[in-house]
Amino acid sequence: MEAVRKENPNLMKFTEKSGEVFVANEPVVKVTAADIEFLKQRVAATARKRVRLCAHPDSGHFLHEMMIVLGLGTYIRPHKHNAKVESFHIVEGMVDVVLFDETGTIQEVVQLGTFASGKNFFYRLSQPLYHTLILRSELLVLHETTNGPFRRDDTVFAPWSPEETDAAGIIKFAENLSKSVSGLV
């Protein structure tokens, strides 16, 4: 990580927790264009096409704020959080947030883009609805806020959606979902 910082001294100080997760090490977190460019470069090297920079110090913190970069083709398995609120503010790119009922029927599609796009640029979900994302740009950069602490068991995956290890199922699911959403928006 020091080699990366030497190449670009404008990067904030952070710790790499995994190939996908970085945690800011500063008491005042300030994200620059250089930090976002670093994340955008890293996303291509990840198998799941996603990278995040956490502004919160650890998974037990009461408030989680993250700068997230997703690459086109990222599969976000439909899921819900029974006791959480989440919000997105779009920094770069476009995405459709798809909301489902318990059976997998699409209830709403929220089209998001940057402020300049004329689309919604902010979204907040305060109910435990199944949701997923369909990227509409090569890269998506968003600021996500949710309440902590993070516990993996708090995420409920939709039983009607393919697991992340089911490559063929994901392709079929994504194609069908894209067709269904296209007919709605």
Structure description:
The chain has 185 residues and is of the alpha+beta class. It has a single domain, classed as Jelly Rolls (Sandwich), CATH 2.60.120. The chain contains three helices and twelve strands, in the order αββαββββββββββα. The strands form three sheets. It has a seven-stranded mixed beta sheet. Strands 8-7-10 form a three-stranded antiparallel beta sheet, with helices on one face. Strands 5-12 form a two-stranded antiparallel ribbon. Strand 1 and strand 2 (21-24) form a beta hairpin. The chain starts with a helix and ends with a helix.
What's a concise summary of this model?
The protein is of the alpha+beta class and 185 residues long.
Structural class: alpha+beta
CATH fold topology: Jelly Rolls
**How widely separated are the two ends?**
43 Å
- The ordered string of helix (H) and strand (E) elements is HEEHEEEEEEEEEEH
| Tertiary shape | globular
Main beta-sheet strand count, sense and barrel state: 7 strands, mixed
Q: From the alpha-carbon coordinates, what is the Rg to the nearest angstrom?
A: 17 Å
Query: What is the total number of structural domains?
Result: 1
> What percent of the residues sit in helical stretches (DSSP H or I)?
10-25%
CATH architecture: Sandwich
The total count of helices amounts to 3
Overall pLDDT metric: 92
Number of strands: 12
Which CATH top level class fits?
A: Mainly Beta
- The largest sheet has its strands arranged as 1-2-3-4-11-6-9
Strand content: 35-45%
Assign the CATH superfamily.
Answer: Jelly Rolls
Parts with pLDDT < 50 across at least 5 consecutive residues: none
